[in-house]
Amino acid sequence: MAKADFYYSPLKDNDDRALCFACTVTLVCWEPSDSPWTEHGRHSPHC
Asked: Where does residue 27 rank: exposed (0-12), middle (13-18), buried (19+ CB within 10 A)?
């Protein structure tokens, strides 16, 4: 996750929440098969 610029920032209702330190995109509900790079690009293509 860190290599894709994410840091862990859990909330009570989202214990897998991750934020990008550069663009602040916030992602939750990660699946074991999710790629941090792919998800980051999908949700914040200009980061």
From this structure: buried
List the structure tokens of 21.
Answer: 């330190």
The three state secondary structure string of the chain is CHHHCEEECCCCCCCCCEEECCCCCEECCCCCCCCHHHHHHHHCCCC
pTM of the model: 0.83
Domains of the chain, first to last: 2-43 (1.10.1170.10)
Per-residue pLDDT of the chain (47 residues; tens, 9 = 90+): 999 999 999 999 999 999 999 999 999 999 999 999 999 999 999 99
